[in-house]
Amino acid sequence: MSLRKLAGLAAGFALAVGLIGTGVSAQWSKSVTAQENINVGSFGCAIVDWTGAVSPTPQQSVSFTALPIVNSIPGQAAFSFTVKNTGTVPQNLTISSSGISSPFVDLLGTPAAVPLNGSDTHTYNGGVSWPDLTNYTGGLSASITYTVNCTEKPAIAVVVTGPVTGSGPLGGQNVLQLTVQGVGFADNSPILLAYDATPGISGDTASDPEKLFGQPVGPNTSSFNNVWFQENCSTGNAGPSIGVDVPFTITAHQGANTASFTGTLPCSQVHNP
Predict the structure, then answer these.
(1) Disulfide: which of 80, 154, 185, 218 matches 193 by Cβ 3.0-4.6 Å?
(2) 179 pairs with which residues across the strands?
(3) Span 148-161, mean pLDDT?
């Protein structure tokens, strides 16, 4: 074998060794874990106290027999019972009655829905009343049944659609009209709506909210639609208009329930230089 061939083989071996070593190295390796746990809340309701109960335990159905009527003068037989939210999921209680007929009258009437948080209770004071019974000679009886529906309390929210620019009684190009909607509030209870834009547009602050059509108290229903807030994007009633977008918050209060919506006023779009 010639020296030229030996040199060629040596070069070939060197190349092979170089390829074998490419990319081979030692590495440390370790892993960590992150875990989230979540549980679904419990849901349930029961009657825990009622008229005539001696040692009450939670019940799904109870019965009470009132004393008999022994004279013809008007009177009443009261019946109360207490419903408890036995779970952790907030509820709305609604009640209805059935079975009562003339001349007897339901003492409870038609109460509004009652919000009830976990472990809280609410007492219903019902029963029947009757007028003068002179014309009734006997054989008259009555029975009233109350049914309480315990349903999941809807989450409350404030939704803003818009804003719509260039409209509203304020007039001019620098007017923003925000249409506000609310969902999940209880029926027949006032909702206070407050509007606040920062920093201090038109003097609006949390303690001095802009009024809705001159009224600071919002609708008296479980939801409200097409309620307008109007903003003229100025630093004051007669101040210069603002050419930058400004954050704002609309808040709805109903008792202990509060919901809010935070957005941005596009004042830059309607700025009057």
Answers:
(1) 218
(2) 161, 228
(3) 84
